[in-house]
Design a protein that fits this description.
Blueprint lengths: L9 H4 L6 H18 L3 H5 L4 H6 L2 H15 L2 E12 L2 E10 L2 E9 L5 E6 L19 E8 L6 E8 L5 E7 L16 H10 L4 E5 L2 H4 L10 H17 L4 E11 L1 H12 L5 E5 L6 H16 L4 H14 L16 E2 L2 E2 H8 L3 H6 L5 E7 L7 H11 L5 E6 L26 H12 L2
Parallel strand pairs: 7-8, 7-9, 9-10, 10-13, 13-14
Antiparallel strand pairs: 1-2, 2-3, 3-4, 5-6, 6-8, 11-12
Length: 439
């Protein structure tokens, strides 16, 4: 592991830092590659900082582009898809499509948004989805749908069990950061697993693409979880109620991590829900969760040097800035903290998910946590348990072997664990089926 502590904020907010700065970087990157496509090498060369201009003169840039064309064929399209802070620099990943194949690039920018380096990204590791053994595709159908307001709709999939009447419906609500409808991470697709597993037992569902993935430009201005999550959950609930064969009075919301944290709020907005499921849901403030993640990754690095310890201290100091609960003279609505608007943090920090859940006499609530989850700790489950264990409408269960993606693992590991295909636990799926069907 590199001896530099990158914020583990990415674990919760992967590519969600839609600040104006990131958008400008994406636009600059796309403009640069457009100029290369048009063979306007002089204009493209002007994007370089002075050092790179010397190392890679205009003629050398022209030759480099020619060599790439010889290998991959005519350039067809380029899209900046990800940005990551690397110390004082930003690394932008660009997805490139050519006539004879795909090639991604990594473009380095300095603080002045000048290009300081261009690299060919290593080939993507091909990962294959592993269909769970408990999923029987002959027992259900899936159809495409859309949720949300006209012109800004989100693609969704409605899963319908066959030969079942008045079946329950479950809406899946994402973890933090942009996500597809399967909540794909590496080779894993937790929502797809769950949807197939539940449908095989006569329970339908709705899963959809998260708004921050499809409409990032909507999140340049200040926003909160209402715009990021809650509006679309309400739209998905409405769609679930109209699914052919579904029981509109038997609707459940499955919230994963951030989605679980917000599930009690969803229940207050939709009081007719039959139940909410909080999977790996933080009971503490996200600031505390992110700090714990950083400390865990620090321990995994096995680097006890003074420099590295100072990097951790600096990271924690920066993360602590997200504890704000109101605007001030130096904190304005459009201020950005850890890649998110100040208003976002204020909204979350003034929301007490445990207290809201404790105040719910209905719907019924299922809270679950995995012991091999390094993103959300058992400390959170203990807080849920302490506050809600005596409530008749609450079921709490701790699964010692599950990780954050709800698959069975032998240890906590790191993000690398997510690259190996592993299905959501069959034990968990069976428990959810029994709980949902219980009267």
């Amino acid at each position: 592991m590199k001896k530099s502590l990158l914020f583990i904020i990415a674990l919760l907010f992967t590519t969600s830092a839609f600040s104006q700065n990131v958008i400008q970087l994406f636009n600059s990157t796309n403009d640069f590659f457009k100029l290369l496509q048009e063979e306007k090498f002089k204009d493209a060369h002007a994007f370089f900082d002075d050092t790179l201009k010397t190392k890679l003169p205009e003629e050398a840039l022209k030759k480099l582009w020619s060599d790439i064309g010889t290998k991959f064929g005519k350039a067809e399209s380029f899209d900046a898809i990800q940005s990551k802070a690397q110390g004082d620099f930003f690394a932008v990943t660009v997805e490139g499509k050519f006539a004879r194949g795909d090639q991604n690039f990594i473009v380095g920018f300095n603080k002045m948004q000048k290009i300081v380096g261009i690299f060919l990204a290593p080939p993507k590791k091909i990962t294959t989805y592993l269909k769970p053994t408990y999923v029987d595709t002959a027992l259900y159908t899936e159809k495409s749908a859309y949720i949300g307001p006209a012109g800004k709709q989100l693609a969704a999939i409605i899963t319908i069990p066959k030969n079942v009447k008045n079946f329950p419906m479950v809406i899946f609500v994402h973890d933090s950061g942009p996500g597809d409808m399967d909540e794909t991470i590496g080779a894993n697709k937790p929502f797809k697993d769950l949807a197939g597993g539940l449908a095989s037992e006569g329970i339908g569902s709705v899963r959809y693409v998260k708004r921050t993935l499809i409409y990032p430009n909507e999140f340049i201005a200040p926003y909160t979880v209402k715009e990021e999550v809650l509006n679309d959950v309400n739209a998905a609930i409405a769609v679930a109620k109209t699914a052919v064969g579904a029981d509109p009075k038997n609707i459940y919301v499955f919230g994963h991590s951030l989605g679980g944290l917000l599930a009690p709020k969803v229940a207050t907005l939709s009081p007719d829900l039959a139940g909410i499921i909080l999977a790996a849901a933080p009971a503490r403030k996200l600031t505390d969760v992110i700090i714990d993640q950083n400390k865990y990754m620090f321990e995994q690095a096995n680097d006890t040097t003074t420099v590295f310890k100072q990097q951790l201290a600096n990271a924690i100091k920066e993360i602590d800035k997200s504890r704000i609960t109101e605007l001030g003279t130096t904190i304005k609505p459009d201020s950005v903290i850890l890649g998110l608007p100040a208003q976002y943090w204020i909204d979350l920090n003034n929301y007490n998910q445990v207290a809201v859940a404790k105040g719910l006499s209905k719907p019924k609530i299922y809270i679950l946590q995995g012991g091999n989850d390094f993103q959300v700790d058992k400390a959170d489950f203990d807080l849920w348990n302490e506050a809600l264990a005596k409530k008749k409408n609450v079921t709490l269960k701790f699964y010692p072997d599950l990780n954050h993606l709800l698959s069975s693992q032998t240890g906590k590991g790191t993000m690398a664990q997510y690259q190996a295909a592993a299905s959501v636990s069959d034990v968990l799926v069976n428990d959810l089926v029994l709980w949902i069907k219980a009267k």
